[in-house]
Write a structure and sequence with these properties.
The complex is a heterodimer of chains A (about 110) and B (about 110). Chain A is mainly β and about 110 residues long. Chain A has strands at about 5, 10-15, 20-25, 30-40, 45-50, 55-60, 65-70, 75-80, 85-95, 100-105, 105-110. Chain A starts with a strand and ends with a strand. Chain B contains no helices and 11 strands. Classes of the chains: A mainly beta (about 110), B mainly beta (about 110).
């Protein structure tokens, strides 16, 4: 069965520092992988998705993620954190495609001056 | 184009009461889903639908019913609310093979 593990429930970085949010997945078939962001009291917004076209995926707001099959990882990065990046981030794997998502527990990112 | 809308935004119920959480989308998406979000557990799939008249269970379906009579609407019913159903509920829709779009959520408290 597919599953997602996000390492670190809370991550804190300084403004301008590298953001690295870790995600490992378990899937018996080539996965569809997603990163979503949730700002306080809002729904989820898609940051980026991996669909096997390219291993390095660029998303919105300067985020990108690299699919590494050998490590079963899909870590999210951003070179320089901004205060507006403070939010909760969820990694998800698609079961049978895009339409049934299994989510990780989430990582709350704090950005301090 | 309103996207995915959910009502109500907040609701407080007593144990044993019933209610329906409403979800509607105006994007003509075939797929619709309900998730619940609990602290430290991410989002978990309750029920989903691949088109009008077709529904199926997700990871945590117990205590919830759904139906899909139209493409636009996908209500979630709690027949007898329990404190364990206190959560934030999200509805999502997607075209076939496409990205899921989420609604703003309904925060439910069961006393």
């Amino acid at each position: 069965a597919q599953s997602v593990t996000q390492l670190g429930s809370h991550v804190s970085v300084s403004e301008g520092a590298l953001v690295l949010l870790r995600c490992n997945y378990s899937s018996s078939v080539p996965p569809y992988l997603f990163w979503y962001v949730q700002y306080p009291n809002q729904g989820l917004q898609l940051l980026l998705k991996y669909t096997s076209a390219a291993t390095l995926v660029k998303g919105i707001n300067g985020f990108e993620a690299e699919f590494k099959k050998s490590e079963t990882s899909f870590h999210l990065t951003k070179p320089s954190a901004h205060m507006s990046d403070a939010a909760e981030y969820f990694c998800a794997v698609g079961v049978g495609g895009y339409n049934k998502l299994i989510f990780g527990a989430g990582t709350r990112l704090a950005v301090h001056p | 184009n309103a996207g995915v809308t959910q009502t109500p935004k907040f609701q407080v119920l007593k144990t044993g009461q019933s209610m329906t959480l409403q979800c509607a989308q105006d994007m003509n998406h075939e797929y619709m889903s309900w998730y619940r979000q609990d602290p430290g557990m991410g989002l978990r799939l309750i029920h989903y639908s691949v088109g009008a008249g077709i529904t199926d269970q997700g990871e945590v379906p117990n205590g919830y019913n759904v139906s899909r009579s139209t493409t636009e609407d996908f209500p979630l019913r709690l027949l007898s609310a329990a404190p364990s159903q206190t959560s934030v509920y999200f509805c999502a829709s997607s075209p076939e093979g496409g990205t899921q779009y989420f609604g703003p959520g309904t925060r439910l408290t069961v006393l």
